[in-house]
Each structure stands twice: as structure tokens, then as C-alpha cells.
Design brief:
The complex is a heterodimer of chains A (592) and B (507). Chain A has 592 residues and is mostly helical. Chain A is built from 31 helices and six strands. Chain A folds into four domains: 137 residues, no CATH class; 108 residues, no CATH class; 135 residues; 121 residues, no CATH class. In chain A, helix 20 runs antiparallel to helix 21. Chain B is of the alpha/beta class. Chain B folds into two domains: 130 residues, Rossmann fold; 327 residues, no CATH class. In chain B, strands 1, 2, 3, 4, 5, 6, 7, 8 and 9 form a nine-stranded mixed sheet that branches. In chain B, helix 6 links the parallel strand 3 and strand 4. In chain B, 48% of the residues are buried. Classes of the chains: A mainly alpha (592), B alpha/beta (507). At the A-B interface, strand 1, helix 1, helix 11 and helix 13 of A face strand 1, helix 8, helix 9 and helix 15 of B. Strand 1 of chain A pairs antiparallel with strand 1 of chain B, so a sheet runs across the interface.
């Protein structure tokens, strides 16, 4: 009789059941997505807070930042101009903040404030900043902070006055911080795990960051350098194979970033014939800074040795404890042999350095908001302190008294570390506020905030920050009331964005992104232009540079129809009516 | 022609062997004819709807004619609109195929859908519980490879009494038979001579061998393959421990002569992506798996039930994988490498690749004959996978030059008729999808070599667009040959690798 023996049980690795199963139904996935988790709760709370602040700031007080309005206007050109095309988003500034506004533009039909108060920009910046707050929470968790500590630090970050202001005001800092935080979190993960997927995600985030702001160039370069260095140190034996590892890792992180930079540059070259219009365009950064050079020298000492002091005052005004926190972070990181702190230093620190150097070398306005990346940087540096907490022992000691003493000691040490971190961050909040209110250091922020919070001390210039761009709204309302047909008003959108975003009929305008703009500028009467809208004191205006003095005298072919006085950031506007005789006879028909 | 003078050893008996006689499997003539008939026409008669004997089914032919008429009419009546619609469709197909590859890749990365059996477990498994195994080695006119083949087989770690190796040769291949005879292989290695018949293809030979096979599990190796010695054990253990509907384990194929020249390096990168990420990704996504040419370990009885391989399909392995899936059975990927020889010669490579693409076209056409039935059998996810992966692979290669051309025209000269025919809303998405698609594939290559620790291939991973030119040449050749000579099998020449360039380390 033969005995039957069963085959021996073996351990083999088979893919998890989830790999071979059908994904759960859509309904269940939605329910799972809605379960409360701390990240989602923080996002909702932060978004609600920022949207409330945005409503108060923009809808109640009427504070609109011109950059925010410019982005919303770009989005409008893409969808509603005479030539709706994606390239109308503009190539002087990187496209992501404008693209983020796109979904809201059609809804302006029901709620005009989305466009004429640029509120679409406020909504997107609130959401981006809420996202950055959520990422901060996640990064703090990755750094090993305990729950109370990370909640406290995240709240301090979220309620930092600079953060709240730039979440609410629709500018691109929120978008930039979101993408940079994403890259930082992924890079910190890679530093810990060495998993190439994290490197891929870091690269993608950096590519996205570049589309948000060009300062991400510094972040990208610094990250690639850091990855190369770490990869070399971790690499296999043999210089040749180490170098290969370095090249591959650098490619993994750098490829999406380089593609982002390259494709944007190629698009710019193809569509506006310049590789980097941010720098080289007449509307671009260099031109603007150049035009304001003497004023900047007077205000900030740019170009002189005083500039160092100015930059330092801004930086340490925002984060007075910066060096202490970096030093403490270094000590604790070395103690724990943990190099994750290098991630925020590489990404956020490099952007900060880039901005400071740009200012010192005379290529930047030196606005206080260019230092905004120091706030998440400081938060993450500070987080290295409580991350060094003493962990609970694996086994309980027999002796209850000894055990109690050790536990007390452990908790006190951990508590001290946590308290130190929270304190170091908390004292920066009043300092930040103070710096923002400083007329010399916070040249942009001070006006809005003084007018809102200290109306009794507000100067005329401060008060003019309220109800901003109402001149442009008036201009737009007047032009709308004329009921002109398509392509009647010629204007350069470089300055007229406020009017263009507020008008109900954008197609009545011929704007810079239109494909026939240059032909219209070359010979307005023959082209059929009826009106020319031109501002006073433009950085660069295509119409004014084609017809110098057109603001004063109509260029010889038009007469003044209406003028508006300037107010605050709004220049004075003049609307000239084209009067060449031949034109008037042929084209003087009103739109039905 | 000398028939073998030896009979198959009956149980318990070891017949005397005449000196210098090859161990031929002796098949009586009537049996041989029956086996041959079965091998050539078995699938075609049993399941004609699964056979690639005809390229297009009747329904497909009618559809093709209808589309052709529609296209012609459209071109005459509204030329511009028709061309724009075609461009839009081509862009859509391209974008969908690229999207699916990306999705597949991500699924492969995230889900780790590869079955692992550790070497220790494999070695320690008691021989009594190992099933009987048959290895089929189809060979044609490759006498120089025989010594290496026998050496590689001898290195396999499997109890010899449970192993059967059938070397399948064609009737007119005296040189290889002579080489085997001279090599004096061990007892479990036997030669089967497949009588001459059309089509003279590898699957027909394998079908013939299938009928003589006695193993419970069957696998195919090419003559120049060097499999992991523990592969048979690992496959057997995996099949025994996985659910019953998993009937096939696909091993990982790699190339040992990567360092030989640029072509072999590109080929190695491509295979790395394919086997470490695409195939596991397809498993994770629930799509049918096109099997690789070798190292696919199948249960013999299941294979017989399915009707064996399709002798009229030049990528019979891909077709088998789809047929398995349509029967409700599954394939999984086994972490065990087989080293193959990558084609290093341009012309040879194009021939091989055009055969593969032609086969994928054939497979796609066969399994889309009754789309509703296919969808019932493999579900939406399977249907999408079949179309976008099996159909998409040759389609992508064939469409690439089209997009290349359009982009070049845009940059070099901007003729007015281009702008008129292809307005911006069509042109720019097409260009965007081409740019992002190709960049994504380069990136996937870099990722795969990083994960596989083959950083020596990084230069090839970046220069891979030049490789795509070769792929496109092959795809166009494939498409043409699909209608001229569908069952023609372009034999790949092997043995071109030079001894100094072998590189099989690193697994």
C-alpha cells in the first residue's frame, strides 16, 4: 500500500489580492474618499479660512492685486477673445496660475465679480494655499512629528500673516508654494527610502513648479545637484558604476523638469519668437526692473551696499529665528543621522537664495513676497527638533518606580523639544506682521493692510489700495455701453488687463494676443479700428511705441472721446475715437 | 531517409542504443500523418473563429470595404473635412495607445504583480512532488547553436526522470540533425522530426510536438536560450500553489549580449520595460497577456483542450495568451530570467520585428472578429487591453513616422496648405500628444533601467527615438506583409553574438 504524501507547504510571494481583483465600485470609492482624514479636514478648514479672507479682502474692501487681475485676464483671453486659443495665456509669465483660473471664467456670466474683481484668482490661490497647508501636514508627519506637534506647527504655518494674505489675494505665490511643497515632500521621501518612484514624483513636481514660477529653476538645479551628490555617496563600488548611478538618478529627477523648461521655451520661441520672454520681452521682468531702477535704488538701496542690509531686514523680519532653527535642525539631523532636512533646504532654500541674489544683482524688485518661501522652510527646519523625540522603550521595566521616572523624564524631554519648536515658530508671527506693516520693507503689503486694519493711520496712498481697479471697471462699463461691434477698440493688454477682464464683451477689443494685432497697430484706420484705449505712464505699450504721444494728442488720426483720472495703481485712461475721414464714411455702423 | 531504429523506452526497460545513432522519437507513419493533420488544421477546424488562417473574417471584410467606400466618397465630396476627421482619429488612436501604456506601466510599478519563488525554496522542494515536464525546443537550420543548447539544458536543475526534452526539427534540416547526433545528448533529450508541410512555422512544429509530449507541464525554449536553472522548479511550484485558473506562468526574458552594439542595447532596454513593467502591469489591470516567445510554462492538458497553438499566426505565443484569457484562464509573470540573444544586425532585426508586428496585427484581427463575444469573455478591461496594447503596439510604431513628418513640416516649412488642411485645434493636440507620448516612453525606459540596476544602458535609454525609426520601418513592412503573405515566417538568424560580448550578470 502506498502512502500518499502531500506536497510541502511553501512560501512563495504572489501578488496581493488587490493586484488581481477588480477595483471596488465607483460608489464605494467615492465613499472611501470622503472618510474624514486629517489631511482632508485640514484642507477644508484652510480653504474655508482663506476663502473667507479673500471675500473680505477683495469683495468687501475691494483690494485687488494687479498681478492677480493680470492672470485672470490672461485666462479670459484664452476663452473669450476674438481669437480664443491656448497661446493667449501669455508667455511673459509662466502659465500655471492663469490656467488654474480657466475653469471659473465661464461662470463669470452669472457672477461678474469672478472677472471684474479677479475673484477667480482669489479662489485658486486659496485652494492652492490650502493644498500647501495639507502638504505641510503630510511632510511633518513624514518627518516623524507627533500629532499635537504637527497640528500646532501646521496651524502656525497656515495662520502666518504672509501665508494668509497670499492665500487670499490671488497672486501666484500660493501656486508656487503648493508645487514647491509637493516637490519637497517627495524629495524628503526619496532621501529616506531611495525608491526611484519618489524621485519620479519629485521630478514631476519640479516640472509643475517651473510652470508656476520661473524661480523654480533654482529649485530644479539645486535638487538635481543634491540628488547627484546623495546618489554618488550611496552608490555602488567603483567610480564608473557610481557615476552611472548618478547620471541615471539625475535623469530621473531632472527629466520632467528639463522637459518642462524646454517645452515652455520652445513654445515661447515658436509663438512669440523669444526663448525666455520673462527676461527678454519688452513686457518682461528685466524691462520693468530696468524702468524702475532709480526708484528702486532710492527705496531699497539696490545697487549699493545698503541693499544687503535691506535684504537681510526683509528676511529676518519674516523669520527672525531663521539661523537658530537651521542650526538646531542641523544638530538634530546629524544626531539622528537623518538627511531629510536637506530637502526643504535644497528646494525652498534655493528659491530663497535665487530671489535674494536676483535682488542684490539688480534684477528684481525686491518685494517682500519674494521671501515667502522662508516661511515653510523655517517650519520644516523647526520640525526637526521635536522629530528627535525620545521614543517609548520597547519593553517595560519591571521596577514601576524606575519605569515611572524614565517615562516622566522621556515625556518632559519630548515636551521640551515640542515646546521649543512651537515657540520658535510662534514668535515669528508677530515679527512677520510687523515687517509686512513696515512701509520700507513691505512696500506692497503695507498699503492694503494699513488701510484695512489701521484706517486712522492710513495715508492717501494706503487708502488708494482699497476699491482698486475701479477706474478700469468704469472704463469697461463705458465701452460696453457703446455696444460696439467686434474688433472696434485697439488696446495693448499689457496695461489694459483690468479693463479687458471687466468688460462684458471682450470681442469688441483688439488685444495683444490677437493674431491680427500687429496689422491693426500698423494702420488702425484702414484696419477698421474705431477707438484706441491708451494709458498714461505705461512700462511698454505697443500702440504708444508705434505712435509716440498718442496719449497726449491722438497720434494725428483720432480725437479724445473720454478720459478717466488715475487712482492708486490704476493709471489715467484716455479713449480716442479714430476720425480719419475715409474710415468714418465706410465703417460708421453700430452693432445691431 | 533513415527512420529511427530505436523505440521509445518503455517503462522499466532501457533498450540498447546503437552507437552514434540519434535518439529519434519513432512515430509510425499513420500516426505521423494524423499528428501532422492535427498540428496544421486542428485549431482551424475545431475553432475556426480563433484561427488566423484567414486574415479577415467575413464581417471584417465587409466592414473594411464599407470604410474604404466611405473614405473614398468622403475624399471626393468633402476632401478637407475627411482628411481632418482622419487626422483626428489617428491622433485619438495614438493618444489612447500611449495613455494605456502609461497606465500599464504605472500598474506594473505599483502593484508588483510578479510571482516570486525563492531559490532556496525551489531547490529544497522534494522531487517526488514535482510534475513531469516537457520542454519543446523548435530549431531550424541552427547546427552551430546545438552544443550550447545541450549545455544549457544540462544545467537545468530538475529530476531527469521527470524531464523530457523534445528537439523539434524539420524534415529537410539535415545539418541540425547531424549536429545533435554528433553532440550525443543525454537520454531525456530526444529529437522529433516534423514531416514537411505548409505552413512551415514554429507553432506547427510545437503543435506536432505537443501531441507527443508526456509532461504535465510544458514549456518552449529557443535553441539559443539560457534559462535560469531553477526555472522549471519555480514554475511547477508556482502553478501548484496558485489558484486553479492560473494555468500559465510567463518567465522574464532578457538579453545577454546587451553590450554588443547599439541595437542590442536598445533591444535590451525595450525588453526590460516590457517584462519588468508592462506585462506585470497588464496582469494587474486584468488585461489579456500576450505571451513571450519562450519560457511560457503551460499545463499540457489545458493546452490540448484549447487546441494548441495557431500555426497560421506568426506570433502564436501572443495569440495563445489571448485565447487563454478568453477561456477564463489566467497567466501570471514568474520572476525567473531566461537569457536570450538579441538581434544585432539591422536587417535581421527588421525582419524579426516585422514578424512580431504582423503577428500582433493578426492576433488583434482574429480576436476582434466577434467583439461582443470577446467582451463577454474578457470584460471591458480585457477588451480595452486587447485593443490598446495588442493592437496599439504595432499601431504606435506605424503612426510615429506620420507624426514625425507633420512636426518636421511645421518647423522646416510652413506651407499654406498645411495650415488649411490641419487647423490649429487638430494640429496642436496631435503634436502635443506625439511629444508627450514619446517623452513618456523615454522616461519609462530610464525608470526601468534604474529599477533593474542596469544603469549601463542609460545612454541607450535616452537615444531611443532612433530605435523607433527602426520600429516604424518594421511596422510598415509588417502591415504590407499582412496582406501579401500573412503566414510567412521570417526566420531570425541566431548565433550572431560574439563571445566577448556576453553579459548575463546582474540578476
Amino acid at each position: 500500500m502506498t502512502t500518499v504524501t502531500l506536497p510541502p507547504p511553501v512560501e512563495i510571494v504572489i501578488p496581493s489580492q488587490a493586484a488581481a481583483q477588480v477595483r471596488p465600485r465607483l460608489g464605494r470609492r467615492v465613499l472611501r474618499a470622503l472618510r474624514p482624514r486629517e489631511g482632508r479636514v485640514f484642507f477644508l478648514l484652510a480653504a474655508a479660512t482663506y476663502l473667507t479672507a479673500a471675500t473680505i479682502l477683495t469683495l468687501h474692501y475691494g483690494v485687488i492685486d494687479v498681478d492677480s487681475m493680470s492672470r485672470v485676464a490672461n485666462a479670459t483671453y484664452v476663452l473669450q477673445s476674438r481669437f480664443p486659443h491656448l497661446a493667449a495665456v501669455g508667455f511673459v509669465w509662466n502659465p500655471l496660475p492663469s490656467l488654474a483660473d480657466l475653469p471659473f471664467i465661464p461662470f463669470a456670466h452669472f457672477w461678474p465679480e469672478l472677472k471684474n474683481h479677479a475673484f477667480a484668482g482669489n479662489i485658486t490661490s486659496s485652494l492652492f494655499m490650502a493644498g500647501a497647508v495639507t502638504l505641510m501636514l503630510g511632510t511633518l508627519r513624514d518627518f516623524g512629528c507627533s500629532r499635537p506637534v504637527r497640528y500646532a506647527l501646521t496651524v502656525l504655518f497656515a495662520l502666518n500673516p504672509m501665508i494668509v494674505l497670499f492665500a487670499a489675494n490671488g497672486m501666484s505665490e500660493a501656486c508656487m508654494l503648493f508645487t514647491l511643497m509637493l516637490a519637497t515632500r517627495m524629495l524628503a521621501k526619496w532621501l529616506r527610502t531611495g525608491d526611484p518612484s519618489d524621485l519620479v514624483r519629485t521630478g514631476m513636481a519640479l516640472g509643475l513648479a517651473y510652470l508656476a514660477r520661473y524661480e523654480a529653476l533654482a529649485a530644479g538645479a539645486a535638487t538635481i545637484g543634491l540628488v547627484a551628490a546623495i546618489s554618488f555617496i550611496r552608490g555602488r563600488s567603483g567610480v564608473k558604476s557610481r557615476l552611472r548611478d548618478v547620471v541615471t538618478d539625475a535623469l530621473l529627477v531632472g527629466f520632467p523638469f528639463v522637459v518642462s523648461v524646454g517645452l515652455w521655451a520652445i513654445s515661447s520661441k515658436v509663438l512669440v519668437h523669444q526663448w525666455f520672454p520673462t527676461i527678454s520681452s519688452s513686457y518682461g521682468n528685466t524691462a520693468q526692473v530696468g524702468a524702475a531702477a532709480s526708484e528702486l535704488r532710492h527705496l531699497t538701496g539696490q545697487g549699493t551696499s545698503e541693499a544687503f542690509l535691506y535684504a537681510a531686514n526683509q528676511l529676518f523680519g519674516l523669520e527672525p529665528t531663521l539661523f537658530i532653527t537651521i542650526g538646531a535642525a542641523a544638530i538634530f539631523a546629524l544626531h539622528l543621522r537623518d538627511n531629510r532636512a536637506l530637502a526643504p533646504l535644497a528646494i525652498l532654500g534655493s528659491v530663497l537664495a535665487f530671489d535674494v541674489i536676483a535682488f542684490l544683482s539688480g534684477h528684481s524688485f525686491g518685494w517682500l513676497r519674494f521671501d515667502i518661501s522662508v516661511i515653510p522652510l523655517a517650519t520644516l527646519m523647526v520640525a526637526c527638533i521635536p522629530a528627535a523625540r525620545v521614543p517609548a522603550p520597547k519593553r517595560r521595566l519591571r521596577n514601576p518606580l524606575l519605569s515611572a521616572c524614565l517615562t516622566t523624564g522621556r515625556l518632559s524631554v519630548n515636551g521640551l523639544l515640542a515646546a521649543a519648536a512651537v515657540l520658535l515658530l510662534a514668535i515669528t508671527l508677530p515679527s512677520t506682521w510687523h515687517t509686512m506693516m513696515n512701509h520700507r520693507l513691505g512696500r506692497e503689503e503695507t498699503h492694503d493692510l494699513t488701510a484695512i486694519f489701521y484706517p486712522h493711520q492710513a495715508t492717501d496712498q494706503d487708502r488708494q489700495a482699497l476699491n482698486s481697479l475701479h477706474v478700469e471697471r468704469q472704463v469697461a462699463a463705458y465701452i460696453d455701453s457703446l455696444h460696439l461691434r467686434n474688433g472696434s477698440v485697439l488696446t495693448d493688454s499689457g496695461d489694459a488687463y483690468g479693463v479687458l477682464a471687466s468688460t462684458k464683451d471682450l470681442k469688441a477689443f483688439i488685444i495683444t494676443s490677437d493674431l491680427d494685432f500687429e496689422r491693426a497697430v500698423a494702420d488702425p484706420p484702414r484696419f477698421g479700428v474705431r477707438y484706441i484705449l491708451t494709458p498714461e505712464h505705461a512700462y511698454y505699450d505697443a500702440v504708444q511705441s508705434a505712435y509716440p504721444g498718442i496719449y497726449d494728442n491722438g497720434g494725428g488720426f483720432s480725437t479724445l472721446a473720454k478720459s478717466w483720472k488715475g487712482y492708486g495703481y490704476s493709471p489715467a485712461w484716455r479713449l480716442y475715437r479714430v476720425t480719419t475721414a475715409a474710415y468714418v464714411a465706410d465703417h460708421d455702423t453700430l452693432r445691431p | 531517409m533513415t527512420a529511427g531504429t530505436l523505440e521509445r523506452p518503455r517503462t522499466g526497460q532501457v533498450p540498447p542504443r546503437a552507437r552514434n545513432e540519434p535518439r529519434l522519437v519513432d512515430v509510425p507513419v499513420e500516426d505521423a500523418q494524423r499528428h501532422l493533420f492535427e498540428a496544421v488544421d486542428g485549431l482551424r477546424l475545431l475553432h475556426p473563429e480563433y484561427s488566423a488562417h484567414t486574415v479577415l473574417s467575413r464581417g471584417q471584410r465587409r466592414l473594411a470595404i464599407a470604410v474604404g467606400v466611405l473614405l473614398l466618397g468622403g475624399l471626393i465630396v468633402a476632401t478637407v473635412l475627411t482628411i481632418q476627421v482622419c487626422l483626428g482619429l489617428i491622433t485619438f488612436v495614438y493618444a489612447a495607445a500611449v495613455w494605456y501604456r502609461w497606465r500599464c506601466f504605472r500598474a506594473g510599478v505599483q502593484n508588483q504583480a510578479v510571482v516570486r519563488v525563492s531559490d532556496d525554496v525551489a531547490r529544497a522542494y522534494p522531487a517526488a512532488h514535482l510534475p513531469r515536464y516537457t520542454i519543446l525546443v523548435p530549431a531550424y537550420r541552427e547546427p552551430e547553436v546545438i552544443p550550447t543548447l545541450l549545455k544549457n539544458i544540462a544545467a537545468m536543475d530538475y529530476p531527469r526522470r521527470k524531464l523530457e526534452v523534445l528537439v523539434l526539427l524539420e524534415e529537410d534540416d539535415d545539418a541540425t540533425r547531424e549536429a545533435i547526433r554528433r553532440a550525443r545528448p543525454a537520454g531525456y533529450v530526444r529529437t522529433v522530426v516534423v514531416p514537411a508541410s505548409e505552413p512551415k512555422t514554429k507553432p506547427k512544429a510545437c503543435n506536432y510536438g505537443l501531441q507527443l509530449a508526456t509532461g504535465d507541464i510544458l514549456t518552449i525554449y529557443d535553441a539559443e536560450d539560457r534559462p535560469d536553472p531553477l526555472q522549471l522548479r519555480k514554475a511547477a511550484i508556482a502553478l501548484a500553489n496558485l489558484p486553479d485558473d492560473v494555468v500559465c506562468m510567463q518567465g522574464l526574458l532578457g538579453y545577454r549580449n546587451a553590450a554588443q552594439n547599439r541595437i542590442t542595447r536598445w533591444f535590451t532596454v525595450e525588453y526590460l520595460i516590457w517584462f519588468t513593467h508592462f506585462l506585470p502591469g497588464l496582469v494587474a489591470l486584468g488585461a489579456p497577456l500576450p505571451l513571450g516567445g519562450t519560457s511560457n510554462h503551460v499545463r499540457t492538458d489545458t493546452l490540448r483542450e484549447l487546441g494548441g497553438w495557431d500555426p497560421f499566426n506568426v506570433t502564436e505565443d501572443a495569440d495563445l495568451g489571448i485565447r487563454l484569457h478568453r477561456s477564463g484562464l489566467r497567466t501570471m509573470v514568474l520572476e525567473s530570467w531566461t537569457d536570450e540573444e538579441a538581434n544585432s544586425d539591422f536587417v535581421n532585426w527588421v525582419k524579426q520585428r516585422s514578424r512580431w508586428y504582423k503577428g500582433y496585427f493578426q492576433t488583434w484581427l482574429v480576436h476582434m472578429r466577434q467583439p461582443r463575444k470577446t467582451k463577454q469573455q474578457i470584460g471591458w478591461r480585457g477588451l480595452i487591453g486587447l485593443n490598446l496594447f495588442v493592437g496599439g503596439t504595432p499601431a504606435l510604431a506605424a503612426l510615429n513616422p506620420w507624426f514625425w513628418g507633420m512636426t518636421l513640416i511645421w518647423f522646416v516649412a510652413k506651407p499654406h496648405w498645411i495650415l488649411a488642411l490641419f487647423p490649429a485645434p487638430l494640429y496642436f493636440p496631435a503634436m502635443a500628444c506625439w511629444i508627450f507620448g514619446n517623452l513618456a516612453v523615454i522616461y519609462m525606459g530610464i525608470y526601468s533601467i534604474r529599477v533593474a540596476r542596469r544603469e549601463d544602458l542609460v545612454a541607450s535609454a535616452i537615444t531611443v527615438p532612433a530605435y523607433w525609426v527602426m520600429m516604424s520601418v518594421a511596422a510598415i513592412k509588417a502591415f504590407v506583409q499582412l496582406f501579401q503573405a500573412p503566414a510567412f515566417w521570417e526566420k531570425t538568424m541566431h548565433g550572431l553574438e560574439r563571445a566577448g560580448h556576453r553579459n548575463g550578470a546582474g540578476r
